[in-house]
């Protein structure tokens, strides 16, 4: 049975007009699982966490933790936060500035009537877990950002809660520290085995930490799956965009073959098993790494759908080049949206180190690397796994 179960969770904030921030949300999280809620700012992640913690009362729905109902709108059950065995770690470390590190870490034990655990050494033990033992007698102002966040981690874990909620805890750290605290957190979870809900808007954080990911859009969940499934088979165009498939190519099949945003298409057809929706159009989503380029007149690789492009700009990235291209129509004019390309400089991509603005290039991608969607952002039957829906009427 799942440890966290939320059904039909809805939160409407009063006001004129009232705003529904979460809308019929459902979550099933296994015991010991590390679930990542991934979504852009404002989609309702914090509100969802606050509802789980009991800091916010949902307008409708039901929440149970470890088999016990802690919230049920219909039956007027609403257990207070301190009766839910939950630890919380916030983005703004939220340490008490006037208290020592020791007192900060001990705080949840006091608040929950577990003072005897302080004598049993839980504070020191937890501080040791996050490498903060030497800092126990300092005050938060005497710590670096990374140290403060480790203390906040210790405070979230000290009472050995069954469920720990993390609200973007790494966002305020600089890039290098973020990686090291992230690795810490991964290790701690493996060691302690708590159930976690971790909120972030950062896809690489989500992929690295999550046993499963829930991708949120405007108060609802678009996809709930393993990182690998989400990365390789995003369920909607929204999810595809969110996990790095930044390129959107609109294909159309006419009497004399495929076009892409008005530009002619050569090589492999983008969708071999052609099953276009009623619009007769197909959207391909592609990562910059999966768009390949070659000098004009050459072919970037075998089995590719081929287009012609022109370089708008390119930037050096150490081991790769990031370039922005525009496609060219039959007359050589710019066609459609820009295309983002990442070319590794080792191997055959080496020539791209000398890309110049205005240079013409051959562009290609393997259809298997793309995800295809109908015009409305839903999976298309042209995707390699057949999409999530029955095939629309074939064209
Ligand atoms: N107390 C509140 N009253 C009214 N609107 C709120 C309140 N709290 C959050 N919101 C709104 O709910 C939406 C979702 O907020 P939030 O859950 O903080 O999103 P996220 O954490 O994903 O950025 C936002 O549009 C925000 O303005
Ligand atoms: Mg938030």
UniProtKB/TrEMBL annotation:
The organism's place on the tree of life at top rank: Bacteria
Keyword annotations from UniProtKB, A to Z: ATP-binding, Nucleotide-binding, Transport
InterPro entries, A to Z: AAA+_ATPase, ABC_transporter-like_ATP-bd, ABC_transporter-like_CS, ABC_transpr_MalK/UgpC-like, Mo/tungstate-bd_C_term_dom, P-loop_NTPase, Transp-assoc_OB_typ2
Spans annotated as Disordered: 372-395
Pfam families tied to this protein: ABC_tran, TOBE_2
Bilayer-crossing regions: none
Gene3D superfamilies per record: P-loop containing nucleotide triphosphate hydrolases
MF GO annotations: ATP binding
Occurrences of domain ABC transporter (ranges): 4-243
Protein name stated in the entry: ABC transporter ATP-binding protein
